[in-house]
């Protein structure tokens, strides 16, 4: 026989194990908050912008062909900017005591769509160091690209600066706690239904009727021991009173 589960049974299962669901959800949110605020190291971000403009020439007006060439060269510049030729010099200038790979992981180079602007973003636990690295990468690249590709068409548009109260870009405690709430709620509901599925004990007459597929003819009531003692004392009082009257 195929078993079907009604919506009422689902709601009854959730209601019966509501405490477990709430406990798991709150535990997930609490753990996420503790990890986000006290365990994970906050990471700060700083950015600078470079402009790959038209190459210097004697032409008085812009040449569309040169601009298109600059756009195509931006991808090449992005790779060069994170190459050891640039990062080794940055590491030496700032005395960072990092490997090229470690410094490379902190830097992200992206170009704006269909534009000649390149964004250099650096992430670091120290906001001042992040801004310092970003500015130094831009400066070293602007200087070294002249020798590397024999061009002089890179300008620094905006330097990275640190605000008065910088905010970390990660972790994001509120977002992490919101995700933990959803995950914890789903896990709690899943565990509740799993426990209900594994629980094959018979607790009510409805369970007997469902298992045997037979109608219930009667139910044997249960009595507490205190109720039984109280009933026995009540039944003895009339007989004792009658014996007293008869002896007189």
UniProtKB/TrEMBL annotation:
It is found in: Cell membrane. Its main location: membrane. Residues 227-248 are annotated as: Disordered. The keyword DNA repair does not apply. The chain crosses the membrane at residues 20-40, 174-195. One of its GO terms (molecular function) is protein tyrosine kinase activity. The keyword Transmembrane helix applies. It is a multi-pass membrane protein. One of its GO terms (cellular component) is plasma membrane. Coiled coil: none annotated. It holds the Pfam family Wzz. Belongs to the CpsC/CapA family. This is Capsular biosynthesis protein. It comes from Siminovitchia acidinfaciens. The lineage of its organism: Bacteria, Bacillati, Bacillota, Bacilli, Bacillales.
């Amino acid at each position: 026989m195929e078993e079907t589960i009604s919506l009422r049974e689902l709601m009854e299962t959730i209601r019966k194990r509501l405490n477990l669901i709430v406990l798991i959800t709150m535990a997930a949110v609490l753990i996420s908050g503790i990890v986000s605020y006290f365990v994970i190291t906050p990471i700060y971000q700083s950015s600078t912008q470079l402009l790959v403009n038209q190459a210097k020439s004697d032409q008085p007006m812009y040449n569309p062909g040169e601009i298109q060439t600059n756009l195509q060269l931006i991808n090449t510049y992005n790779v060069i900017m994170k190459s050891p030729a640039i990062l080794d010099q940055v590491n030496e200038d700032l005395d960072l005591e990092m490997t090229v790979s470690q410094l490379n992981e902190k830097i992200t180079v992206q170009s704006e769509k269909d534009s000649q602007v390149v964004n250099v973003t650096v992430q670091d636990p120290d906001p001042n160091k992040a801004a310092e690295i970003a500015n130094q990468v831009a400066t070293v690249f602007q200087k070294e690209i002249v020798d590397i590709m024999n061009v002089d068409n890179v300008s620094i548009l905006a330097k990275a600066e640190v605000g008065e109260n910088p905010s970390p870009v990660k972790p994001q405690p509120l977002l992490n706690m919101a995700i933990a709430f959803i995950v914890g709620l789903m896990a709690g509901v899943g565990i509740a239904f799993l426990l209900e599925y594994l629980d094959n004990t018979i607790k009510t007459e409805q369970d007997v009727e469902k298992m045997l597929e037979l109608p219930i003819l009667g139910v044997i009531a249960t009595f507490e021991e205190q109720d039984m003692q109280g009933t026995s004392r009540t039944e003895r009082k009339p007989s004792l009173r009658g014996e007293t009257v008869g002896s007189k």
